[in-house]
Amino acid sequence: MPENDPRRVPVGPPGAWPYWVGGVALALINTLILLADDRPWGITLVFTLLGSRALQSVGLHPENWTYFNQGGRDTLLSQFGWADTYLWLNLGVVAGALLGSLAVGEFAIRPWPKKWRKLLLSLGGGVLMGYGARLALGCSVGAHIGGISSFSLHGWIFAVMLLVGALAGIRLFRRIL
Amino acid sequence: MSRRSLDLVGEVCPVPLMRTSEEVSRMAAGTELLVETDYPRALTNITQWCFRHGHPYEILDYRRGIYRVIIRKTP
Amino acid sequence: MPGKALFALTAPSVVLLVAWRLWEQNPDTAVMWLLGIAMGAMLQRSRYCVAAAYRDTVMFGDTGLARSLLLALAISSVTFGVIQAMRWPDGFPIAAQRISAGTLAGPVLFGIGMIPAGGCAASTLLRLGEGNLRFLWTLAGLVLGSLLGAYHFGWWEKLLGTAQPVYLPAALGWPGAILVQSSLLLAAFLVIKWWERRGSVLL
Q: Which chains have 3 or more CB–CB distances shorter than 8 Å to chain B?
C-alpha cells in the first residue's frame, strides 16, 4: 500500500513531472517568446481584444475607451487580426496541454457540474480575474512573471498585492467553496 | 476496517485537498477513505499531503477521467 | 500499443500543419504557436499553477509550486536581464506604461478571483486543454471581466493619478538592480521556508 522510499516525495499520478521541471521550462520558453515577439508571455490581453472585437461586431465602439487611446495601445485593437502572435501563443498553450494530457491518458472531457452555485463561482472568479488583470495591465503570468523577470517594480507590486488578494479570497470563500 | 468515501468529481482546487484533509483529520485511525476526483492536479496535492502526514495511500485504476485514491489514516 | 502509435503520428502532424498554414500568414505567428505548444505541454505535465503557488502555500503549507515559481523567476531574471541589457538599454517597453491605482487594486482583485475560480489565467488555458469544461465558465468570466476592466480603466487612472513605472536598471544601474532583484527573490524564498517550518496553515 504505501510508497517505497520515504525520501521520494510523490508527484501524484503516473507520468507527472516534478514542479521544478515546469519552473525551468516556464523560464526558458518565456525567454524564447521574448526573443521571438519582443515581449514575454501574456494572456489576458487576448481576452480583451477578442471581447472588444465581439463588441465591435454588434455595433459598439470600445476603441473609444480611454484604455485603447493611450499608453501605446492606440493601434492594438485595429491591428488585432487572425494571425495575432499572442492569440496563437495562447491557443498553442491550450493545444499543448491537450496533447500533453492526451499523451499519458489524462485527457478526458470533464463536463461542468450541474450546481449553478459552482458555475457562478467559476464565472465570478473569472470576472474578478479579468477585471483585475486589465487594471494591472497583466495577469499572474504577464504582469507577475513577466514584470519581475524584466526588472520592473510593477511585477513585485503585483506579487505582493496578489498575496493580499489571495488571503482575502481564502477568507471570503472558505465556507462557500 | 471501515471505509468512507468522498466524491469530489467536478470540484476544482482547493476543494479536493481541503475536503480530503478535513475528512482524514476527522477519521479514526485505521479507517480508510476512498477519494474520487477528476482533477489531475488534485491527485498530486492529495498524495503529497498524505505522504507528508504519513498516511499510506494507493492510487487505484484510472477510469474515464476519474482517479480513485484509497487513504488509510495512520496516527 | 496502436493508440500510442496513432497519437505519435497524428499529433505532430497536426501541430506542424497548423504551423505551416500560419507561416504563410506571418512566420512569427507560427513560431509563437510552436512555443505555445511547448509551454502548454510542459506546464500541464508538471502541474504548474501560479494561483496554487500562493494558495496552497497559504492554505496547506504546500510550498513546492511556490519554490518552483521562484526558480522560474530567478532563471528568467538572468535571461531577460541579458536580453534587455543588449537590446533595450534604456528600458524594456513593458506593459505597464504608467502606474496607477489600478496597478495596486488589480492584483488584489485578481487574487480574490482566483480562489473561487480554482486557478489563474494560465491554469484556465491548461485545464481547458485537459478537457475540463468547467473552465469555459471561467474563460467567459475572464473575457467579460477584461472588457469591464478596459471600460473602467480611465477611471482607475484618474483615481490617484499616474506615475512612471520603475525600471530597476534605469533607476539603480545594473549592479543595483541585480542586487535588489536577488535580495527580493532571496527574501521571498526565506519567507516561504519560514512559513513551511511554521507548520500551521490558514485553513
A: A, C
Kindly give the parts of chain A with pLDDT less than 50: 1-8
Radius of gyration over every alpha carbon of chain B, rounded to an integer in angstroms: 11
CB pair distance less than 8 Å for B56 and A2: yes
Question: How do the domains of chain C map onto residue ranges?
Answer: 1-46, 49-198
- Beta bridge partners of residue B63, listed in sequence order: B66
Per-residue buried b or exposed e for B45-73, using 16+ beta carbons within 10 Å of the residue's own CB: bbbbbbbeeebebebeebeebbbbbbbbb
CA distance C92 to A42: 15
Mean pLDDT, chain C, rounded, equals 89
Say if pTM beats, i.e. exceeds, 0.80.
Answer: yes
Q: What is the ipTM of this complex?
A: 0.92
CB A19 within 8 A of CB C56: no
Q: Do B49 and C55 touch (CB under 8 A)?
A: no
Query: At A138, is the secondary structure helix, strand, or coil?
Result: coil
pLDDT at res. A72: 76
Convert the pLDDT of each residue in C128-179 to its tens digit. 999 999 999 999 999 999 999 999 999 998 888 888 888 888 888 888 989 9
Percent of all residues in chain C with a pLDDT value above 90, rounded to a whole number: 58
Q: Is B30 on the interface with A (CB under 8 A)?
A: no
Are the beta carbons of C203 and B21 separated by less than 8 Å? Answer: yes
Residue range C73-90, pLDDT digits in tens = 999 999 999 998 888 766
On whether the CB atoms of residues C106 and A135 are closer than 8 A, the answer is yes
Residue given cell 467553496 in the structure block: A177
